[in-house]
UniProtKB/TrEMBL annotation:
This is Laminin G domain-containing protein. The keyword Disulfide bond applies. Residues 113-151 form the EGF-like domain. The lineage of its organism: Eukaryota, Metazoa, Chordata, Craniata, Vertebrata. Residues 1-112 form the Laminin G domain. It comes from Bambusicola thoracicus (Chinese bamboo-partridge).
C-alpha cells in the first residue's frame, strides 16, 4: 500500500525503480504516476514525492523489442494487479491509442472520468468528495453537516465542545 514499482527488462535482466510513500496509496483517491524508460535512465514519479531514477545499463537495448504481449499494470500470470486509469502510454516514442485498445481488452473500459470530477459538486456544505472503487463518498469531517451528501446538520453538542 505504500509503494509503486516500475519493473522492466530490456534484454539484460530485470530492473526496478521504486518510490515509497509515507501514506497509503491504495486510498481510493486519484494518484499521479509517471514511469519512463529512455536511453539514459529509468525514472518513476508518484504524486509530489521526489522522483526516483536509475541510470540505464550500457549493455541494454535502446528500444523496446516485444516478442510477446506488453502488460501494463500486471504480468501474464497476474493480469488483475492494477486498478485505475492510464491516460497516456508511449511505446518507442509513439503514443498508443488506449481508447481503441480498451475496447478490445477484456476487463478494461475506455474513458477515465471519476465521479467527483465528472458530476460537479456532489457534496454540500464543504464536504470533500472521495472516489471509491465503484462510486464515491462524501467526507463531512470538517463541516458542521453529516449524511451521505453532507446535508444533514449535526447537533450543536457535536460541533462545539463545552469549555467550562
Amino acid at each position: 500500500p505504500y509503494e509503486v514499482i516500475f519493473s522492466f527488462d530490456v534484454g539484460n535482466g530485470p530492473n526496478e525503480v521504486k518510490v515509497q510513500s509515507l501514506t497509503f496509496l491504495n486510498d481510493n483517491q486519484w494518484h499521479y504516476v509517471k514511469a519512463e524508460r529512455n536511453i539514459k535512465e529509468a525514472s518513476l514519479q508518484v504524486d509530489k514525492i521526489p522522483q526516483k531514477s536509475h541510470t540505464a545499463p550500457p549493455d541494454g537495448h535502446f528500444r523496446l523489442q516485444l516478442n510477446s504481449q506488453l502488460f501494463v499494470g500486471g504480468t501474464a500470470s497476474r493480469q488483475k494487479g492494477f486498478l485505475g486509469c492510464i491516460r497516456s502510454l508511449q511505446l518507442n516514442g509513439i503514443a498508443l491509442d488506449l481508447e481503441e485498445r480498451a475496447k478490445i481488452t477484456p476487463g478494461v473500459e475506455p474513458g477515465c472520468p471519476g465521479h467527483c470530477s465528472s458530476y460537479g459538486n456532489l457534496c454540500d456544505n464543504g464536504g470533500k468528495c472521495r472516489e471509491k472503487y465503484s462510486g464515491f463518498t462524501c467526507d463531512c469531517t470538517f463541516s458542521a453537516y453529516a449524511g451521505p451528501f453532507c446535508k444533514k446538520g449535526k447537533p450543536a453538542s457535536s460541533v462545539f465542545k463545552n469549555s467550562s
